[in-house]
Amino acid sequence: MDPTAWIWIVVVIVVIALILVLLMSSRRRREAFRQKRDEQNRQHAAEIRRKAENADLEARENEARAMHAKADAEKAQVEAARLRQEAEQRQSAAQEFRTDAEKHQYKANALDPDVDEHGNRRDGARDVNDRDMGSRADDVRADDRRADDARSADARDADVRDAGARRADADTATDATRRNTPRE
Questions:
Q1: In b/e form, how buried is each residue of 123-133, taking b as 16+ CB within 10 angstroms?
Q2: DSSP tag of 113
């Protein structure tokens, strides 16, 4: 064979080898680029998942707060209904007491000769309670005087006891001073 043919064969083999090397290196580059891109996508997906989990957690917390607020509102409604019912019962009881009082007042006016048919007192009429109030006031004043007298007597007794105790303490101190003082 001719040496030029050999050169051409070697050149073709070298070119084919270069093409194969280039193809292999580009495949490796593409694979490295794909791996890098996949890793970035994995990290980005993990970050999105974390955000989704945080959003889900926040949504559940908001739902729990909403349920709690709803329960509080229902509790307040129940309490309001209970208070409204209690107020109605008390108002009914007060009305019954008022009716009873009016009945008693009517009976008392019917029995009292000093009251006219409209429930008004006649001029010059004196109430039984007014007479009782005068004697009760006298009793209270007498009780107050007795209590004041008793307090005064107790205070005098306490003063006498305190004076006796002070005198005894003074005598003891004087005796102790005499014993501790040297004679000249």
A1: eeeeeeeeeee
A2: T
